Structure formats: structure tokens, C-alpha cells
Amino acid sequence: VQLTESGGGIVQPGGSLRLSCTASGFTFSEYVMRWYRQAPGKEREFVALHKWTVGSTDYADSVKGRFTISRDNVRSTVYLQMNSLEPEDTAVYYCNVQGPLFGRSEYWGQGTQVTVSS
Fold first, then answer.
1. DSSP 24-90
2. Tens digit of pLDDT for each residue in 56-88?
């Protein structure tokens, strides 16, 4: 199982970024995909999830109305569109899949840094 995030960067407050996570090694369409983030000195926290059916999404209260999670099962990719970014959104963003899957309870990507600063 491999999860590879991309799309992070530096953006000004109010700006937008789109993160991507491309998966391999498992049947992507059968699993819920999640985004988490970890800010410096803080614990990793849930951001958003997307189930295998259209419209089955959930978000942390802190990002509702600003972030949108979507997936492309043909490309085995999950996206996180982030709008109206705030300095508090600065964190490393991680892609996650939870099993059980090949003997492990979950897998993580390597993370992509998002920095919101003027």
C-alpha cells in the first residue's frame, strides 16, 4: 500500500490550494479515504473523509464550508480543495486509509506541507 500526497505550498491568507493523494496497492474504490493534518506542537487531527459513494463526506468543524474532499476512483486519487485559507490551517497534511488492510489497521502518506502566511 502506498499513499503519495502532493500539492502543498505557501499561500497567502484567503488563498486556495488543492491537495492530491494518489493510492496504490489496494482496491481504492472499496475504502474510505481521509485527510488529517498536524500543526507544529499539536496532535494530528482529522480534517475530512470521503466514503465510496457519492456525497458521503464529513468534515471537521474548523474546515466546514471552506474545504471540499472529492475522489476519482478511476485514478485512485483523493483530493482536498482548500479555499479561504487561514494561518491556522498551516500544517502538514496527511492522507490516510484505514483497514484492516494486509495485516495493518491503517496506512499514512508521507505528508505535504501547507503554509498560510502573508
1. ESS-GGGS-EEEEEE-TTS--EEEEEE-SSTT-EEE-TTTTTTEEEEEETTTTEEEEEE-S--GGG-
2. 999 999 999 999 999 999 999 999 999 999 999
